[in-house]
Design goal:
Elements (H helix, E strand, L loop, with lengths): L5 E8 L9 E6 L4 E8 L4 H16 L5 H18 L7 E10 L2 E7 L3 E6 L2 E4 L6 H7 L5 H4 L20 E6 L5 E5 L1 H4 L4 H9 L4 H14 L6 E8 L5 H6 L8 H21 L2
Antiparallel strand pairs: 1-10, 2-3, 3-4, 4-5, 5-8, 6-7, 6-9, 9-10
Helix pairs in contact: 1-2, 6-7
Bound molecules: calcium ion.
């Protein structure tokens, strides 16, 4: 992996309604790993679950695919819950990304999300494991109604509970791309336009994270809020970058080189044949 190919920042806040913060954020930048986990369960066990998920993921993702690492985290939460009667019902969502050169792998369980801001436009890269997402897929609900639906926080898959099936996607990053990992406490308070505004109007990840969390709190802060922002800089050698461009840009140097040779020939021809 190319060193210093990205800058990043992350923060988490309990919000205005809860004293506890059951979210956890984490990273291992030397391995290109970043994650958000959103815990749930009574007796403050949500924060125990998301901490177990974070610790397990940062270890397991070093040697296995992200979906396998998520299943490892699931088993770790189940094992811990079996040992403590107070933590029987604990669970956690998780979203984790791995950046390796321009390749970005994403794995998740639950409704924690990854957004991509590219050339000023925001795109959601993950699809929630939630009741609302099922209704949206069936066409039984509009995006606008989803934001106010009473069951919008109902997740259909959780690490530590039942039998989750992690999802996976990948994206090839381009220089200037910004990734946002967040818990639902952020995207429940801020719509796409507000997230875009906060990401665009601040230049460094530290300021973007602070602005996003502040905006979520100003909008209500009804849940724990977490945000991790990663800005990717393409530092690969030019030859490698051209090879991964969508058009066959490897021909561009030959094209421009050929053009320059013709111009030089015409100048020479003009100079010596008058
Ligand atoms: Ca939450």
């Amino acid at each position: 992996m190319q060193r210093d190919a990205f800058s990043f920042a992350g923060d988490t806040h309990p919000g205005r309604k809860y004293a506890h913060n059951e979210d956890n954020i984490g990273w291992a930048p030397e391995h290109g790993l970043f994650l958000v986990a959103d815990g749930m369960g009574g007796h403050a066990s949500g924060e125990v679950a998301s901490q177990i998920v974070k610790d397990t993921l940062l270890r397991a993702a070093l040697t296995m695919p992200l979906t396998d690492a998520l299943l490892e985290a699931h088993r770790a939460v189940v094992a811990a819950a079996a040992e403590s009667p107070n933590q029987r019902s604990m669970g956690s969502t998780a979203v984790i990304v791995r950046i390796d050169d321009a390749r970005c792998d994403i794995g998740w369980v639950g409704d924690s999300r990854v957004y991509l801001l590219r050339r000023g436009r925001l795109r959601l890269l993950t699809r929630d494991h939630s009741y609302i997402e099922l209704l949206l897929e069936k066409g039984e609900l509009s995006e606008a109604d989803a934001r106010t639906h009473p069951d919008r926080n109902l997740v259909t898959q959780t690490l530590g509970i039942a039998d989750p099936t992690p999802s996976h996607t990948e994206v090839t990053l381009r220089g200037g791309d910004r990734l946002l990992l967040c818990s639902d406490g952020l995207n429940d308070e801020l719509d796409d336009a507000q997230i875009t505004t906060q990401l665009r109007s601040n230049t460094i990840p530290n300021a973007q994270v602070a602005a996003l969390i502040e905006a979520a709190l100003a909008s209500g802060g009804r849940d724990n809020v977490s945000a991790v922002v990663i800005e990717y800089t393409d530092r690969r050698p030019l030859r490698q970058r051209l090879r991964s461009m969508p058009i066959n840009a490897a021909w561009l140097p030959a094209f421009f080189g050929g053009g320059a040779a013709i111009v030089l020939f015409l100048i020479w021809y003009g100079l010596f044949n008058n």
